[in-house]
Design a protein that fits this description.
The complex is a heterotrimer of chains A (about 425), B (about 475) and C (about 120). Chain A is of the alpha/beta class. In chain A, the strands form five sheets. In chain A, strands 2-10-9-8-7-3-4 form a seven-stranded mixed sheet, with helices on both faces. A three-stranded antiparallel sheet of chain A has the order 13-16-15, covered by helices on one side. In chain A, strands 1-14 form a two-stranded parallel ribbon. Chain B is of the alpha/beta class and about 475 residues long. Chain B has two domains: about 260 residues, Type I PLP-dependent aspartate aminotransferase-like (Major domain) (Aspartate Aminotransferase, domain 2, 3-Layer(aba) Sandwich); about 120 residues, Aspartate Aminotransferase, domain 1, CATH 3.90.1150. In chain B, the strands form three sheets. Chain B has a seven-stranded mixed sheet, sandwiched between helices. A three-stranded antiparallel sheet of chain B has the order 10-12-11. A two-stranded antiparallel ribbon of chain B has the order 8-9. Chain B is globular, with a radius of gyration of 25 Å. In chain C, about 20% of the residues lie in helices and about 40% in strands. Chain C is built from four helices and nine strands. The longest helix of chain C is centred in the last third of the chain and has 8 residues. The two termini of chain C are about 15 Å apart. The chains are: A alpha/beta (about 425), B alpha/beta (about 475), C alpha+beta (about 120).
Chain lengths: ~425, ~475, ~120
Amino acid sequence: MFLMGTYVPNTAAQQRAMLAALGVDRAEELFAAVPREMLVDRLNLPEGLSELSVRQKVSAMAGKNRVYPTVLRGAGSYRHFIPAVVKSVTGREELVTAYTPYQAEISQGILQSIFEYQTMICALTGMDVSNASVYDGGTAAAEALAMCRDRKRNRAYVSACADPQVIETMRTYCFGSGMALELIPERDGRTDLSAVSLGADAACVYIAQPNYYGNIEDARATGEAAHAAGARFIMGCNPIALAVMETPAACGADIAVGEAQPLGLDVAFGGPYLGYMAATKAMFRKLPGRIVGQTHDAEGNTGYVLTLTAREQHIRREKASSNICSNQALCAFTAGGYMTAMGADGLRQAATLCMSKAHYFAGELEKTGLPRVHTGEYFHEFVTKCGDPVKILRALDENGILGGLPVKDGILWCVTELVTREELDRAVSIIKEVC
Amino acid sequence: MKLIFEKGAPGQHLSLMPPCDVPEVTLSRPRTEPLNLPHVSETELTRHYTALAKRVHGVNDGFYPLGSCTMKYNPKINEDMAALFSQIHPLQPEETVQGCLEVLHESEKLLGEITGMDAMTFQPAAGAHGEFTGLLLIKAYHARRNDAARTKIIVPDSAHGTNPASAVMAGFTVVNIPSGEDGCVDVEALRGAVGPDTAGLMLTNPNTVGIFDRNILEITRIVHDAGGLCYYDGANLNAVMGVVRPGDMGFDVIHLNLHKTFSTPHGGGGPGSGAVGCKEFLRCFLPGPVVTRDEAGYHLTVPEHSIGRVKDFYGNFSVVVKALTYILTLGREGIPEAARNAVLNANYMMKRLSEKYAMAYAGPCMHEFVMTLQDLKDATGCSAMDIAKGLLDHGIHPPTMYFPLIVHEALMVEPTETESQETMDEVCRVFLDLWDLAHQNPQALHDAPTRTPVRRLDEVGAARNPVLRYTGE
Amino acid sequence: MNFPAELKYTKDHEWFKDLGNDTALVGITDFAQSELGDLVFINLPQVGDEVIADESFCDVESVKAVSDVMSPCTGVIEEVNTELEDEPQLLNEDPYGAWIARIRDISACGELMSADEYEAFVQK
């Protein structure tokens, strides 16, 4: 029988020869330990397909999605310009098909790229130490809470203005660990720290910067209040905004985390993305996951290794503070390539373009009768009031524009450097017609 | 090799961003610190990353028998298919993402059939993340039944280190039970360990020494009779996919490593996907949202008693597309054929290497086997590490070293089904030559590798004086 | 291998130096450090922590392993040797000089051996 692609190179004759070397007739005999009554008789799966047929089948599925030429929606997933060179270098087969760099001598490329990534995350955040990355922004934030927990301090205070998905992920992790999570209420689209009193059990305070509504928080004051209560201060920051915004280090953060998807990763229906985590020197040993360090070999050549590994699950087992083993190496490699391609000036330009266009668009929306809900400074997202969001979003949709996300008080808009002024003007004129 | 920060010169850059076509806005409290990112030309950038790639050994570069990691060939069509979905925003209206939801729904159906599970979430991003998620399902199940006494998770001492770490993250206490002499669960020890405080058991089958536990039905029954649930660590599913199903072994919840068993690449350590499957009675606890289907199409819904999200959006979606592509390619006959060949290849190598190397457990093995080099070390001074480093000079990625912990001087070999007899013959010859070399010239192995970009690195120095970023000094 | 006569030893390879007034210094033995190999970090206990005889009160890390250090006695941590945080290699180089903690208010001790007894114990 001719099987479709199993990717098994051995011919039937070779398989027979190997079986003969083992002294058995059929491969099934090698499964003698499996109780016979459990063996699968016939899987209810479709027949295997040729590559051409698979391509057609999966392409047909992809064809049922809609790709919007213009996107004015963010809320945790951001379409940015990705330079061609980033795609070209991150498609390298050696990297794509390798696993974790257990054998440092033949993994220097991955290890060095992570070391460079760690350095760039430190540059961006101002923090002392970065890990090799974790799954995404939500899990990075959840892991950050756990870093702050000790016997006496078991309560995390989390801004209600953080991304609801991030808050939910934190809640799930806290359900596991038993850490208490208390929300700090919102007022005018910002964290209202005056509404809570940080007790002696306060482990940490978490805010997002800019927050879910795009607003810039008074991070310094929040950090001071956290520290005054003996708690740690965690900031979840948009990495592109960090090119123009006060760094978490400057704001007194003990830990900086965030979703690094904006650094060169496709929106890709939500993943894979990249969680970055960085900390002060005082806290770096509590960072979960992989960390790469610089060292040398016996001949004095500089090289890189996974280091501080005794913190990790494969050694500490039930005493490890996190179970994470892998990082998002290929995504971190991409983010490193993106930051290198952009450079400091490019990243600042991208951030300024995002912010300026968002402000231009907000101004135009206000003229059409959709004013901002909140006051104060914002980055590239903002919430406007909105009479009938369904009508507005449908009108935009019919013109190939993915409008903002409906939220509690209106619509959450996002503008990145990908959107031209003409597209913004066009969106405004479409909205005018239905308002 | 220089770091990217040591290349180029201030002023070198790429031209990527257009001028601002609206009035520029700045923040009242801007960044004041310099932003020290590299400054290189596009030429330099490309060469740097190309040079980095050349200093990596992937499956495409050569044999990669890293036990427990299933480093099988990564079909290239997987990447092409994933790219078809790259521009879909995760918060688009449901009716505009029907194709994405179909991918998730189809994958759930097909993987459910392969594993014998009724429902699945693709949110977990990796195996460890899947373990955590699955254990929370167990926790929520007991909590919902007001059975607060079930606080313990039983883990065999041969387990992956993630198992106990995940159990603790999920708020459980870990009870380690010793393995029997055959590397399998000591059934009497298990019987003694279960009780009214048992929340569940975590097990890999075939286990971490590459043996299918023939007592599996009795094991899962003991746990169920005590009121606990059974968790299947899917790390080793490649040995048995399409041959026997975890659901039929008595497991209630499982995780899969789509990046191992289902051929999506490992990416140098991620992104992966640790899909979690469960039996019907646990479906209501799954992280939300999950995909449901009715006449109108596919929908995203949150299960009634969901434990909550474990990750943003729907998991590493692109990885799921790749796994689905692979399953569609192999199909009903190809899935078990891959497993049979994985097992055949492992037994073939085990047989050939048995000529000189001592095996930790007698064959036949499943998809991987564990050698113990304690005798070699005693006789020659050459350790499992030395043999591993010797392999590097032959362009071969070494097996997993020093795991499982219950075997001394362990090397765990997993060739996978995508390696040919010729490749394995060649690799076995190298292994056997190194065994001879250990006897003739052990120093040569202590000194290995010599042909790699760097020699053995000073890990002690790296840990004692951590240098974790470039500081320009 | 060095077994100073003025110290007491545990079967878990810690040493105990009685300072009088229910106070003692504790550390790991020469045998322990040689078995553990190059140590790269120590997780010191906190001053004020209550410790219990034969229970773990801190751990030491090598590149490939982490090992618990058991307390020889029940008491309260009075002082820790913070020098070890930056120079864990002292545990290897001078195990009897590199005390880990000074313990006060000692109310009980685990089973302690003399130098001769311990030497015989490790040679078994």
